[in-house]
Backbone:
C-alpha cells in the first residue's frame, strides 16, 4: 500500500515538473526574439500587437481548445476534459511568472540561438513528461489527440497540421497589424521540428525509467 502511494506521488510529481518545464520552455522561446513556438504563436502574435498579457491570452486560446474538444467529441465527451481549464490557469500563471523573472533581452543572434535550443529542450522534456504520466492533458495536446482519434490519422501528422494551422493564423493576424512576422520567425520553424526530436530523445532515454518509478510499466 505504501509503495502504491509513493508511486502515485511520483506520478503527480513528474507531471507537475513536466508542466513547469513546458511553461518555461514556451516562455524562453518567446524571449529569443525569433518567434513563439507554433502552439502559442497566435496568443503571442496578438500580445505583440496589442500589448495584452501573453499568459492571459494563452489561457483564452487554451480554453477555446477545450471548448473545441467538447464540440468535436460530441457524445463521447467526458467531464474530466473540463479539468484542462483549471490546469491551464495554473500553467499560464507559471508562464507569467517566468516572463516576469527572466530578464533576458534578445538581439545577440548566437545567444538567441543558444537560448532557443534550451527552450526547445525544456519544451520537449516537459511535453514528454506530462503525456507519459497520462493524467490531465495540456489543452494543446488534448485538441490534437482529439482530432487524431476522430479522423483516424496518425498523431504526429495531426500535430504537424495543427501547428501549421496555428502558424498560418498567426501570419494572417500579423498581416492585419502591418507585420506578417510579428509573432512568427526562425525560432517558430526550428521549434516545430526540434520539439518533436526533443520528445523522441527524452522518451528513448528516460520514459522507461519514469514508468517504472511510477508503476505504469
Residues:
Amino acid at each position: 500500500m505504501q509503495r502504491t502511494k509513493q508511486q502515485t506521488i511520483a506520478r503527480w510529481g513528474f507531471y507537475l515538473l513536466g508542466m513547469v518545464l513546458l511553461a518555461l520552455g514556451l516562455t524562453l522561446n518567446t524571449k529569443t526574439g525569433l518567434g513563439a513556438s507554433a502552439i502559442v504563436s497566435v496568443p503571442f502574435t496578438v500580445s505583440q500587437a496589442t500589448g495584452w498579457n501573453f499568459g492571459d491570452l494563452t489561457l483564452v486560446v487554451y480554453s477555446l481548445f477545450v471548448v473545441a474538444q467538447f464540440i468535436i467529441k460530441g457524445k463521447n465527451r467526458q467531464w474530466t476534459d473540463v479539468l484542462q481549464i483549471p490546469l491551464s490557469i495554473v500553467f499560464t500563471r507559471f508562464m507569467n511568472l517566468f516572463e516576469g523573472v527572466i530578464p533576458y533581452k534578445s538581439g545577440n543572434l548566437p545567444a538567441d540561438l543558444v537560448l532557443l535550443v534550451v527552450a526547445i529542450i525544456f519544451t520537449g522534456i516537459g511535453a514528454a513528461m506530462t503525456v507519459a504520466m497520462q493524467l490531465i492533458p495540456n489543452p494543446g495536446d488534448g485538441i490534437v489527440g482529439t482530432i487524431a482519434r476522430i479522423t483516424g490519422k496518425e498523431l504526429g501528422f495531426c500535430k504537424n497540421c495543427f501547428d501549421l494551422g496555428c502558424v498560418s493564423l498567426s501570419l494572417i493576424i500579423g498581416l492585419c497589424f502591418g507585420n506578417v512576422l510579428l509573432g512568427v520567425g526562425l525560432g517558430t520553424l526550428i521549434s516545430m521540428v526540434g520539439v518533436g526530436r526533443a520528445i523522441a530523445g527524452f522518451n528513448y532515454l528516460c520514459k522507461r525509467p519514469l514508468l517504472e518509478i511510477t508503476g505504469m510499466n
